[in-house]
Write a structure and sequence with these properties.
- It is a single chain.
- This protein has one domain.
- It is 67% helix and 4% strand.
- It contains ten helices and two strands; from the N terminus they run H-H-H-H-H-H-H-E-E-H-H-H.
- It has a two-stranded antiparallel ribbon.
- A hairpin with a 2-residue loop joins strand 1 and strand 2.
- Helix 1 runs antiparallel to helix 3, helix 3 runs antiparallel to helix 9 and helix 4 packs antiparallel against helix 5.
- It is globular and about 75 Å long.
- It is a multi-pass membrane protein.
Length: 283
């Protein structure tokens, strides 16, 4: 038997955030295909924005799932999201322009299987487990795909797996100088996992408010984008990497300032609360 413990009231319905996050992420990642059309990499930053959209959705999904008393399950949910997502993302990159759609479908299947095992084999018996893990797997796949495009300029497997280096004055292909061959995917995994885990963990409690939690999710996403934009200098052109860095810093500054503003709002609200007195003689 599972008892649902609400962590916040009001706000935007979860299904609405799901639609915004899913559609926004897919559209932004697909817009990075402009790199191929115009033979450039200046649109790579759009992949990072797509990942941020997915992370905001994923944070609300974690809140939805953990409202059933899974406070310590936040890190596990985040790791399942990115673990399922990396499998789907790598497979999807081999399908060309269909990559974002294939990533969505494959990750949904993997997530649904993980949710079924959690409920029916591990016997967690949480009503939203299957749906939530399905959502989180999709979030993980789209986050990794968006970050991969941002650092590598493409969501094509060969573009991510094969780079170039200079040897004796000649430019030669090198797997080690690529996003996948250089193990950059592992870094993207951790940046995505930390971003999706931290927000709800940091805001969890009786004073949790949806707008503050989701703003922190966006801030964490942009913070990850800053790191990724710095790494992108090694894989895409200087100007595209600078554009990514400027967008990342601007997005982070705005969301951080808004998060601090919302935190002050909620802290001030608690000042009117009376302290909880301990009963005489101890608890």
């Amino acid at each position: 038997m599972t008892v649902k413990v609400e962590v916040g009231a009001g706000g935007i319905p979860h299904n609405q955030i799901l639609i915004y996050g899913l559609v926004g992420s897919l559209v932004l990642i697909y817009l990075t295909y402009l790199n191929v059309i115009f033979d450039t990499t200046v649109f790579s930053f759009l992949g990072g924005l797509g990942a941020v959209a997915a992370l905001v959705w994923g944070t609300d999904t974690i809140k939805h799932l953990c409202s059933y008393g899974l406070g310590t399950g936040v890190p596990s949910a985040g790791m399942i999201a990115l673990g399922s997502g990396v499998v789907a993302m790598l497979l999807a990159t081999t399908t060309g322009i269909l990559a974002p759609i294939v990533a969505l479908i494959v990750s949904a299947i993997v997530g649904a299987i993980a949710g079924f095992l959690a409920n029916k084999v591990v016997r967690m018996d949480i009503p939203v487990m299957i749906m939530s893990l399905t959502e989180l797997a999709i979030v993980g796949a789209l986050t990794l795909l968006g970050f991969a495009v941002m650092v590598g300029g493409t969501f094509d497997f060969l573009g991510l797996a094969v780079g170039t280096t200079t040897f004796l004055g000649f430019t030669v292909e090198s797997y080690a100088a690529s996003v996948i061959g250089g193990s950059i995917v592992a870094v993207l995994f951790m940046l995505g996992a930390i971003a999706i885990q931290h927000s709800f963990n940091a805001c969890l409690g009786p004073g949790e408010q949806q707008d503050r939690t989701l703003m922190l999710a966006a801030e964490c996403g942009f913070l990850s984008m800053i790191v990724i934009s710095v790494m992108s200098f090694a894989f895409i052109g200087f100007i595209p990497a600078v554009i990514s860095l400027v967008v990342s810093v601007a997005g982070w500054y705005y969301t951080y300032a808004k998060y601090i503003e919302l935190s002050k709002r909620d802290a001030y609200a608690w000042l009117d609360a009376k302290p909880i007195l301990e009963p005489k003689g101890g608890a």
